[in-house]
Specification:
Helices cover about 10% and strands about 35% of the residues. By secondary structure, it is mainly beta. The chain starts with 13 loop residues before the first strand and ends in a 6-residue tail after the last strand. A hairpin with a 2-residue loop joins strand 3 and strand 4. The strands form two sheets. Strands 4-3-2-1-5 form a five-stranded antiparallel sheet, with no helix packed on it. Strands 6-7 form a two-stranded antiparallel sheet. The model has no long low-confidence stretch (mean pLDDT about 90).
Length: about 110
């Protein structure tokens, strides 16, 4: 019998990467790795995370701009910076920022 893993972060949480200088808002969660092997192998082996943990889809931003990121739980930290995420897809997916957490638009809920 496998161990049930519970995601540490939720959709709407603002997080930052533990190593790389970017922050973002979570818009989806995979209970374990669900990307391509090509993507997996593109990560340097020395910093490649385990596949058996939650992975998060983020609307991310850094000094160079906006993008979507896919990040393992072990590489995320809760963001202390209260500023909103300035990614163009945030307003399409979330209706408000309340107490440091984004609230999904009712139409975006599954």
């Amino acid at each position: 019998m496998g161990i049930e893993r519970r995601a540490r972060f939720r959709i709407g949480d603002i997080v930052r990467h533990r190593i790389y200088p970017f922050r973002g808002v979570i818009y989806d969660v995979d209970p374990e790795f669900a990307n391509s092997e090509e993507w997996w192998n593109s990560i340097p082996a020395a910093v490649r995370p385990s596949k058996d943990q939650p992975f998060y889809h983020l609307f991310a931003e850094n000094a160079q701009g906006h993008y979507n990121a896919y990040v393992s739980e072990q590489n995320l930290l809760r963001e202390d910076d209260p500023r909103p995420i300035d990614h163009p897809q945030v307003q399409e997916t979330f209706s408000a920022l309340e107490n440091g957490t984004y609230v999904l638009h009712p139409r975006a809920r599954h």
